[in-house]
Amino acid sequence: MFVTVRMPDGATHRLEALEGWRIMEVIRDWGIPIKAECGGACACATCHVWVGEEWVGKLVPPSAEELEMLDGAFQVDERSRLCCQIIMTPELDGLEVELAPESLADAPPERMVVGG
Amino acid sequence: MQANEASTDVVVIGAGPVGLFAVFQLGLARLKAHVIDILDKPGGQCAELYPEKPIYDIPGIPGCTGQELTDRLLEQIKPIEPVFHLGEMVTALTRTSDGKWRVDTDAGRVLIAPVIVIAAGGGSFVPKRPPIPGIEAYEGTGVFYAVRKIEAFRGKRVVIAGGGDSALDWTVNLAPIAQKLTLVHRRPEFRAAPDTVNKMRALEAKGLVKFELGQPSDLKGSDGKLDAVVVKRPDGTTFDIATDALLPFFGLTMKLGPIADFGINLHENLIPVDTAKFETSMPGIFAIGDINSYPGKLKLILSGFHEAALMAQAAHRYVHPDKVLRFQYTTSSSELQRLLKVA
C-alpha cells in the first residue's frame, strides 16, 4: 500500500505504508520533515495536511477533538486533517495528502518580534 | 556583580521533564542549578502541549497526565531549591576568559557557570506565524503575537484571529479600550473556556465586538504600517477589514532558535552527544532529552532521565575537578536523605 505526499515546495513522495500506522508515522518514519510536535496525541496541529478531494469522504470523519485542534492550523478547509488521526487501511491505498507549510519541520533558526 | 547577574554550578536550559529531573540528579551530586525556560511555567511540552493527555511509560507510574508528571517532578526537586528564570529565552552562550560559560537571556540576565545543560526538547516555544507572505515586515508594528501593554491598543482598530483561550481572553480584555475590535475565526465554535466565550458573545450583542467567520489570508499596508487584513471566508471569497493591528493567536510551535548559533555541532537540528556523559562538541556543555542524538536514541522521557543521571556525574568533575563524587543511594545515604529533607 502506498500514500503520496506533496510537499509545500511541490515535490512529491510515494511512500509505502503499513496497515494500522498513522499517516503521520508513515511520513515521519520515511524521513520526511514533518513537525508532528506532540508525537500523535492530537495536541498540536503540526501534522496538518490537505487530503485529495476524492479522499475526503473515504476517511473516518474527524473527531470533535481533531476539529478543535485544527483551530491551531492555517488555511484550514474541508480537506484539512491532522494526519496523526488518519489510520492506514487497505481502503486508503493510494491516498494523496499535501503537507501544510506550517507542518514542515526544520525551519531555519530565526528570532521573532513577539511583543505588542 | 549586578542584580541580574549570578554565578552558579550549572545552568539548565529548558524546564521540561528532563530539565527538571536534571536538577534532581545535579542536586544529588551537590551541584546548584539555575533553570531557564521561554515558557512562563515549568513542564515544557508536558505542560504546554499535552497537560491533560495521559502518559503511560514513566517507570513506576502506571499512568499520569503531562501536568501531573510536571507537578510530581517539581515536588521531587523542591528540596534541591533550583532557581527558575521563566519567560526568558537564552540568546547567547559564550566562553568567559577564565574558562567558564556565560549565558545571556533576552531579559538581560547573565548567568556564569562551568557547566551548561541543554535540555531544550524541540527548541523554544514561539507563537505560530500565519503563512502570509510579507507578514514579517509588520511584526512589532502592526502584527503582534502577544499583548505586553494593553494601553498600546487604546483607541486602535484591532483584529484578533483564532478561537482558543488567548484569542478570546484578549477579545474580552481589549474590546472596552479598542476603537473597534473584530474577532476572526474559521468556525462559529470556540476551544476557549465557555465562560469567556459567553463574555465575548455578550460584548458582541452590545456592539463592542464584531465576529467574522474566516481566516486571515493576506495583509495590506506599506512600510510596516498595517492598513487592512484580508479575510478568506469558508466559501473562498475574501473581504478586507481596515485595521491598525492584527493579533494572531494560533498557539505555539517549537523552533530551535538561537541554540543553532552557539557554535555547538548540530546534525539535522539535533545535538550529537556521546553516550557516557551526553556531552556536546564543546567541553562542559551537555545536551539531554529530545534535543540530543546518538546511535539508538529514542525520544522518550525515560531516556532523558537516564541521560540526566549520567550527565550529572560528568558535570561534577567540571565543577569540582579536585573532588571525588562518592556514589550513593538515596535509600541508604543519610547525607542524601538530609539533602532531600526526608531525614
Provide the residue-averaged pLDDT of chain B: 96
Count every beta strand of chain B, where a strand is a DSSP E run of 2 or more residues: 22
CATH first level of the largest domain in chain B: Alpha Beta
Based on secondary structure, the structural category of chain A is alpha+beta
In terms of quaternary structure, the protein is: heterodimer
Number of helices of chain B: 7
**Estimated helix fraction of chain A:** 10-25%
User: In the residues of chain B, how many domains can be counted?
Assistant: 2
What does this structure look like?
The complex is a heterodimer of chains A (116) and B (343). With 116 residues, chain A is α+β, with helices and mostly antiparallel strands. Chain A has one domain: Beta-grasp domain (Ubiquitin-like (UB roll), Roll). Chain A contains 2 helices and 5 strands, in the order ββαβαββ. In chain A, strands 2-1-5-3-4 form a 5-stranded mixed β-sheet. In chain A, β1 (2-6) and β2 form a beta hairpin. The longest helix of chain A has 7 residues, at 23-29. The termini of chain A are far apart. Residues 107-116 of chain A have low confidence and may be disordered. Chain B has 343 residues and is an alpha/beta fold. Chain B has 2 domains: 5-126 and 253-339, FAD/NAD(P)-binding domain; 129-250, FAD/NAD(P)-binding domain (3-Layer(bba) Sandwich). Chain B contains 7 helices and 22 strands. Chain B has helices at 17-28, 44-48, 66-77, 165-174, 194-205, 301-319, 334-339, and strands spanning 5-7, 10-13, 33-37, 54-55, 64-65, 83-86, 90-95, 101-105, 110-113, 115-118, 124-127, 157-161, 180-185, 210-213, 215-222, 225-232, 238-242, 245-248, 252-255, 271-272, 285-287, 292-293. In chain B, α1 packs parallel to α3, α1 runs parallel beside α6 (301-319) and α4 runs parallel beside α5. Chain A binds chain B through residues 35, 37-39, 41, 43-46, 67-68, 71-77, 101-102, 105-107, 109-116, and chain B through 45, 49-50, 53, 122, 126-131, 139-140, 144-149, 152-153, 162-164, 185-187, 189-191, 215, 217, 234, 245, 247, 250-251, 253-261, 268-269, 299.
